[in-house]
Amino acid sequence: MTTHPSRRAVLRVGGAGLLGLGYPQLHEAAASPSAARRATAKAVIFLHQWGGPGQHETFDPKPTAPDNVRGWFGATQTRLPGVIFGERIPRIAALADKFTVVRCLQHGMKNHNSAGYYSLTGVAPPTDDQRLRDTLELFPAYGSIVDRLAPAPRGVATFVSFPHVIADGSVTPGQHASFLGKAHNPLFVNQDPNRADFRLPELTLPDTLPVERLENRRDILRLIDEQSDLLETSLVARGLDETYQKAVAMLTSPRFKQAFDLSKEPQAVRDRYGRTTYGQSCLLARRAVEAGAKFVNVYYARSIGGFGQGWDYHGFRGEDTVGRLNELLPIADQTLPALLTDLEERGMLNDVMVVWVGEFGRTPRISSNGGRDHWPQCYSALIAGGGAKRGFVYGASDRLGAYPTLGQARPEDLAATMFAALGLDPEAEVRDKLNRPLPIARGKPIAEVFA
């Protein structure tokens, strides 16, 4: 029979670290008014569209623009008078009265790794360089900030991410805790939730290992080494040398483990999300926040380039741009409405903010290669639930979808908006390796987004 550590044993292993905030966190929390800020959301699901979806094909079509701007598809009317979306996302359009669309996001990073880091942290990289490397000097992921300042109860991962580590050549920065330390890394599950054998790896105790041995750090590390699947699928487990007590509590929590058992979902619900990696990942995100997670990153694709691998539709190397979009757009159009509808039906949408965004948009004009290139000067995002207005469009672009003409928003403002929704003061500070105080967001919440 498999034996799990008792709650008392887990608490003994964890010590004060499992009982609440450590001293540095107490210092940071006390140094800011974040505790007094009214939260409008209990959790955020951050749907990162790796590669950069085009504004023309999604939330800001230009049907009256010239052919080389208008693109391959028409537009579809939403439930909002005068508001149109791309022709291939009619289900999303039918739910436009349930969310906010931001049509004026902009920044200056044209490379995937630098723009991706900006999108995942809200902090501009030191340089716009595709060779930007993941280092501990760069800023932490949003979820790591939340774990530092407002962690979930013990036994629950504050920050969860899946099912890929995204990269464009090298690993894209901004996916982990960086200088905050491994204690605040995500519970990262590098498995496909659409696979029949998908599961959260468990920390199990052999019959010959008594619970009391969990008090011995070396025995825990040896146990983890023997169960190598943990090391392959969980950044929490990889960081066990610093946070083994947190990992033990989390990976032996029945409630949280059950959230990763998709077999408990009705087949009709799984089918509604779509039997794709992305579809089942979004279903898993709903289950994770239902179990108490506070920030969930879902990455649409592992890499860019190659058919079906992401939203990077340059149209070169003989790729069929229309064929790629005919795969990407229907998946988005099935999964996002399923998630929003599911949250609404469960009475969760008011408490969970869903953010759908890529690292940039696509060029207004179709290139000579038959696709659209990178375009950070104007792109769109969707924000639903967690205090966001319903049936609202913030900002506008010019007739070509090239530059904002109304409204102003940058990744740092989107970061501040999410932190504010969770009740964190965007001006609250964390400290880097040199003990320098740094604000968790460099922008301001987009006030117009909140109801």
TrEMBL record:
Per its UniProt record, what InterPro entries does this chain match?
Alkaline_phosphatase_core_sf (IPR017850), DUF1501 (IPR010869), TAT_signal (IPR006311)
Q: Which Pfam families match?
A: DUF1501
Superkingdom, taxonomy of origin:
Bacteria
The protein in question is named DUF1501 domain-containing protein
Q: Which organism is it from?
A: Urbifossiella limnaea
